[in-house]
């Protein structure tokens, strides 16, 4: 905060942290989503692993938002909410609509992150973001069939979700979800007296079995490269055919509203299988469209910027871009999709 203004973690650092979490998740045979949010609360990057499950990205983003904006682990925030009166708790939710899922597991990101984790908090450390994970098998519960040693981190019983986040940050393991030891014993039996450090924090090789995620990263990179060549700063969302996000990225200094707009136009294009602005032509731009928006469990937007993604003649998702004008955003999406494979 050299100039006195709130600073968000950069996209490059966010991407590196997410990749480390995905590497560890694949090593442990886990599937889910990871989100990084800036200190301002603005989205920076989110990634869903292959077969990561719908809804995980939203939960992860909520916990990352809490950690970034409240500047504490989301487990500490949850503990505080359990002690306040119901009106205070309800007031927080009303004033903080992005804190949809106030669960444990989110961690602040401190200044000094290099991609292998922050140097660690000090009395003068600055929180520049938050990170969290959630999804199909990313949770505090130990999945069946895993090696007991992989659920031991730094000599103590551990849970999968907190391991991913602490590994990504390069921090010593500290559980955020209650009694890890009790869950470990319930799953495996008596905890070994000679457990050693365990394998939970062992180095993970680069993930290599994420074809959908890799495809989304390539598409995102193509969009941002073309945007940079045109002197544009954009935020983009890539969603599946149900409208659930697979990848979201915000170029540094892109308008912060663009994360919401790009996700809504991407979901519109994917789920209606038409450019997002055509929704108004299909349903009108008045009362009917308002009722339609309220009937769906995800945000839609009848504005330019969202284009369906087709592979082999089938709509597999949607690409939404926002930041420049809607017309420029749509033209950019069409231009990239025209040559991307």
Describe the model.
Helix content is 38%, strand content 16%. It folds into two domains: 11-188, Beta-Lactamase; 211-339, 2-Layer Sandwich (Beta-Lactamase), CATH 3.30.450. It is an alpha+beta fold and 341 residues long. The protein contains eleven helices and ten strands. The two termini are 41 Å apart. Strands 3-4-1-2-8-7-10-9 form an eight-stranded antiparallel β-sheet. A two-stranded antiparallel sheet has the order 5-6. The relative contact order is 0.12.
List keywords for this structure.
341 residues, alpha+beta, Beta-Lactamase, 2 domains, 8-stranded antiparallel β-sheet, two-stranded antiparallel ribbon, 11 helices, globular
What can be said about this structure in brief?
This protein is of the alpha+beta class and 341 residues long. It is built from eleven helices and ten strands. It has helices spanning 11-27, 56-70, 74-81, 86-95, 160-169, 180-188, 211-229, 258-272, 279-283, 287-295, 326-339; strands at 33-38, 43-48, 107-110, 127-134, 152-153, 156-157, 235-240, 245-250, 306-311, 314-322.
Average predicted local confidence, pLDDT: 93
Tally of contiguous helical segments: 11
Low-confidence parts lasting 5 or more residues at pLDDT below 50?
113-119
Written as H for each helix and E for each strand, in order along the chain, the element string is: HEEHHHEEEEHHHEEHHHEEH
């Amino acid at each position: 905060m050299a100039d006195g203004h709130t600073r968000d973690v950069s996209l490059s650092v966010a991407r590196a942290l997410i990749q480390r979490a995905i590497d560890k998740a694949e090593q442990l045979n886990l599937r889910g989503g990871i989100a990084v949010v800036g200190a301002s609360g603005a989205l920076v990057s989110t990634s869903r692993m292959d077969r990561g499950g719908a809804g995980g990205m939203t939960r992860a983003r909520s916990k990352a938002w809490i950690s970034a904006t409240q500047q504490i682990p989301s487990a500490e925030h949850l503990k505080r909410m359990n002690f306040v009166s119901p009106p205070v708790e309800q007031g927080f939710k009303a004033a903080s609509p992005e804190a949809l899922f106030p669960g444990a597991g989110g961690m602040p990101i401190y200044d000094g992150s290099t991609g292998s984790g922050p140097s660690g908090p000090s009395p003068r450390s600055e929180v520049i973001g938050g990170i969290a994970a959630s999804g199909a098998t990313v949770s505090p519960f130990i999945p069946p069939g895993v090696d007991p040693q992989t659920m031991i981190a730094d000599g103590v019983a551990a849970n999968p979700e907190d391991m991913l986040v602490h590994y990504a940050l390069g921090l010593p393991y500290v559980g955020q979800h209650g009694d890890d030891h009790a869950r470990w014993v319930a799953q495996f039996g008596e905890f070994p007296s000679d457990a050693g450090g365990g394998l939970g924090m062992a180095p993970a090789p680069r993930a290599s079995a994420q074809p959908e995620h890799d495809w989304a990263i390539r598409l995102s990179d193509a969009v941002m490269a073309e945007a940079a060549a045109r002197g544009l700063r954009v935020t983009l969302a890539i969603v599946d055919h149900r409208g659930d996000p697979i990848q979201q990225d915000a170029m540094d200094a892109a308008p912060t509203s663009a994360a919401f707009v790009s996700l809504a136009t991407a979901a519109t294009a994917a789920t209606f299988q038409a450019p997002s602005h055509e929704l108004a032509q299909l349903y009108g731009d008045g009362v009917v469209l308002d009722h339609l928006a309220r009937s769906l469990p995800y945000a839609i937007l009848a504005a330019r910027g969202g284009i369906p993604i087709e592979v082999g003649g089938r709509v597999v998702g949607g690409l939404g871009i926002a930041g420049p004008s809607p017309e420029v955003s749509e033209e950019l999406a069409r231009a990239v999709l025209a040559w991307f494979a």
